[in-house]
User: What shape does this take?
Amino acid sequence: MASEKRTFVPGIGRIIQCDDCVSEGADWLAESDSRFADALKLTGPLPLRRRPEGFAQLLSAIVSQQVSVASANAIWKRMQDAKLTGPRKIMWASDDDLRAAGLSRQKIRYARALAEARIDFSALRNAPDDQVIATLVQVPGIGVWTAEIYAMFSLGRADVFAHGDLALQEAARVLFDLPERPKERQMRQLAEAWSPWRSVAARILWAYYRVAKDREGIR
Assistant: This one.
């Protein structure tokens, strides 16, 4: 009972807090659809992928846009060294300070917009999924995908799915033997059957994508 209280929030649903939560969702999906069971045989145990909440996590997501992982890590390290990872620091910093850390003109604008948005991250923790996403996408530089990823991994929402993610779409094409890669609308229809564990379905498909990429020649 105590474990259930920690992992279920009325009005929101299941919260993924530990590996056991992921395993429970994976077992449910495998029982619901044998193709998920087949995928899990190839992928093995799924990662928890929980991330911190708050301003810095979203700022890091902005930093990572349209650059390599190595470049994003290097920029983020410079920002951390310069103590430019909090909203007040971003607002007080000059454009030259932010450029010196590696931010482009557009990302400086996005970083300042995030700081000025004054998002109540504690309130997001208890907000419904659609409200979380609607709140975040109001900030320039944060799209639906970034908002969904934040809900899935920073807030641990068990029933959120990144329908526009190309890797998820391609993994679904291969796993479910679809004639072509499903577009976002079709992915939404497919994912309805995976509720209340859509974020675990996403974990399976991401893991399956990495396995099937070599086996099936996915590009």
Notes: The first helix runs from residue 2 to 7. The radius of gyration is 19 Å. Residues 2-49+159-213 form a domain with the Endonuclease Iii, domain 2 fold (CATH 1.10.1670.40).
